Amino acid sequence: MDMFFSFLTPGLAAYTLAIAVLAGLVKGMVGFAMPMILVSGLGTVLPPEVALAGLILPTVVTNGVQALRHGPAAALTSIRRFRVFLVVGGVFLLASAQLVAVLPIPVMLLILGVMITGFTLMQLAGVRFRLSAPSTRIEAAVGAFAGSIGGVSGVWGPPTVAYLTALNTPKADQIRVQGVIYGLGALVLMVAHVASGVLNRETLPFSAALLVPTLLGMWLGGRIHDRIDQQAFRRATLVVLTLAGLNLLRRGLIG
After folding, report:
1. CA 17, CA 12: separation in Å to the nearest integer?
2. Cβ 31 vs Cβ 222: under 8 Å
3. Which of 166, 172, 158, 139 shows the shortest CA–CA distance to 244?
4. Residue 28 contacts residue 222 (beta carbons within 8 Å)
5. What pTM was estimated for this model as a whole?
6. Model confidence pLDDT, tens digit, residues 73-99
7. Nearest Cα to 156, choosing from 207, 119, 109?
């Protein structure tokens, strides 16, 4: 603990808090992208494993708030509806998290970045990919891919959002479903990285310190979310998803 907080000079601490507020703000608006913003922003000034550990508690807590926004009954309905995604994604997340110290991440990030950026750019250009009805096979495949990426990078949002967007999920439902999926995934990620050693007694206080600024940002973003309509929400989601995809490409190419 002392090592990390002594490393944070006043300027660096201010930067870290600003990144946390921004990550929470975007999450409050579109329901995702907080881990990507945190791991990218913190990773520029901190070791990768510390940046990964830092996002874990804020991800667990903010997704719990997001999942329960419409009450426990609605959250349980979402769990039943996306049980295949949750189970398959959780298994793959647990397995891939144990490879974080030995598996080269750039190739996986490049694959994900190409898929997400291509999907969202085509959607923004008017080329629509829609699923007329949920598919168990597609849901399982997306869950496996999201879990595999999430375990090694802490980021599993883009495949999830792409799937929900293809289903044309209403914005209120999409925010709740994302909270449920990400929240349960974050709990699995936390357990996995206690086992991997990434989250430990030195990094846990740092992760806890990011809770207040991320929750503040999420509250501000939620107020913006409530003022926009379905079409504006969808477009904002695609724009953020495109930026996330481009960032994944950047990380895959140059680290």
Report:
1. 9
2. no
3. 158
4. yes
5. 0.71
6. 988 888 888 889 889 988 888 888 776
7. 109
CA dihedral over 144, 199, 35, 228, signed as positive or negative: positive
Whole-Å CA distances, 156 to 128, 159, 161, 205: 22, 7, 9, 24
DSSP class per residue in 34-67: HHHHHHHHHHTTS-HHHHHHHHHHHHHHHHHHHH
| CA distances in angstroms from 78 to 68, 73, 81, 114, listed in the order given | 11, 9, 5, 29
Which of 49-53, 78-82, 109-113, 158-162 shows the lowest per-residue confidence on average (mean pLDDT)?
109-113
Amino acid 166 reads A
Which one, of 178, 182, 179, 190, lies nearest residue 54 by Cα? 190
Our CA dihedral for 243, 224, 186, 199, rounded to 10 degrees, sits at: 80
Distance CA 180, CA 215 (A): 17
Question: Tokens 């994944």 appear where?
Answer: 248
- Contacts (Cβ under 8 Å, ≥6 apart) of 141: none
pLDDT at 1 over 60: no
CA 48 to each of CA 7, 34, 100: distance values in angstroms, whole numbers, following the listed order:
15, 16, 11
Count Cβ atoms below 10 Å from residue 40 Cβ, excluding itself. Answer: 19
- Is the Cα torsion angle 143, 28, 191, 156 positive or negative in sign? positive
Letter for the amino acid at 114? V
Q: What's at 178, amino acid-wise?
A: Q
Residue with tokens 């206080």: 205
